[in-house]
């Protein structure tokens, strides 16, 4: 890391332009590449007569060779400064873009409120017109209150409650079956008890309206 020459903030040691104030971090030669090469050539030609006079004609080849090395070294230095300038500008651009981009905000998915319906109404709707009831309830969450007639586990291993719309122990009409993912909330319940459940309506079969993925409302 190094400090910007202008704003004094810490920036990457290889950066040629400050990502904060955009100030150029290169030296004079790096900022003026063409002028640097031109001055190097002029200096060499101006020095050539003096070197020839000082060293004699036998050293002309050495002088020319030194001049060529000088020009090549200067050219390489300027090209290296140019490449570093491009790299620094790219780093500054990435840093600027990163600071300007904000993290995407996740939009919360609204929770669908269950359809609150009387147990007797749900049963009556399926009894009167199963197709219309399927369109109204199937696949949707419903909330209802009813009376427990059975607490057990079916042949598929699912824990369930059998519910009737009233507390009559001799009720023989259409009932409601609520399946649960586990039995943790069912072990404390009793037959004849009134409970409120929320579940996803599936369908009616053999006089039983099935709700799955149920949970007790306390």
Task: Write up this protein.
There is one protein chain. The protein is of the alpha+beta class and 218 residues long. The chain folds into 2 domains: 99 residues, no CATH class; 102 residues, Nucleic acid-binding proteins (OB fold (Dihydrolipoamide Acetyltransferase, E2P), Beta Barrel), CATH 2.40.50.140. The chain contains 5 helices and 8 strands, in the order ββαααβααβββββ. The strands form 2 sheets. Strands 4-5-6-8-7 form a 5-stranded mixed β-barrel. Strands 1-2 form a two-stranded antiparallel ribbon. β7 and β8 form a beta hairpin. α4 crosses α5. The radius of gyration is 43 Å and the shape is rod-shaped.
List keywords for this structure.
alpha+beta, two-stranded antiparallel ribbon, 5 helices, OB fold (Dihydrolipoamide Acetyltransferase, E2P), 218 residues, 24% strand, five-stranded mixed β-barrel
Write the SSE topology:
Layout: E1 2-3, E2 10-11, H1 28-31, H2 33-55, H3 60-100, E3 115-116, H4 119-128, H5 130-137, E4 141-153, E5 159-164, E6 175-180, E7 194-205, E8 208-216
Parallel strand pairs: 3-4, 6-8
Antiparallel strand pairs: 1-2, 4-5, 4-7, 5-6, 7-8
């Amino acid at each position: 890391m190094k400090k910007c020459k202008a704003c004094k903030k810490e920036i990457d040691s290889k950066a040629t332009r400050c990502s904060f104030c955009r100030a150029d971090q290169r030296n004079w030669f790096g900022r003026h590449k063409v002028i640097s090469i031109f001055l190097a050539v002029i200096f060499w030609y101006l020095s050539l007569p003096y070197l020839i006079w000082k060293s004699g004609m036998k050293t002309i080849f050495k002088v020319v060779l030194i001049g060529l090395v000088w020009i090549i070294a200067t050219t390489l230095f300027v090209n290296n400064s140019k490449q570093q300038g491009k790299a620094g500008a790219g780093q500054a651009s990435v840093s600027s873009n990163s600071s300007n981009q904000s993290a995407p905000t996740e939009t919360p998915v609204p929770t669908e409120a269950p359809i609150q319906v009387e147990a007797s109404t749900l049963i009556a709707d399926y009894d009167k017109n199963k197709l219309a009831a399927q369109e109204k309830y199937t696949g949707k969450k419903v909330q209802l209150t009813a009376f427990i007639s059975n607490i057990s586990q079916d042949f598929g291993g699912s824990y369930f409650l059998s519910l009737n719309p009233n507390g009559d122990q001799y009720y023989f009409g259409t009932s409601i079956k609520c399946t649960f993912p586990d039995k943790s909330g069912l072990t404390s319940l009793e037959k004849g008890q009134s409970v409120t459940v929320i579940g996803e309506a599936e369908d009616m079969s053999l006089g039983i309206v099935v709700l799955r993925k149920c949970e007790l409302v306390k």
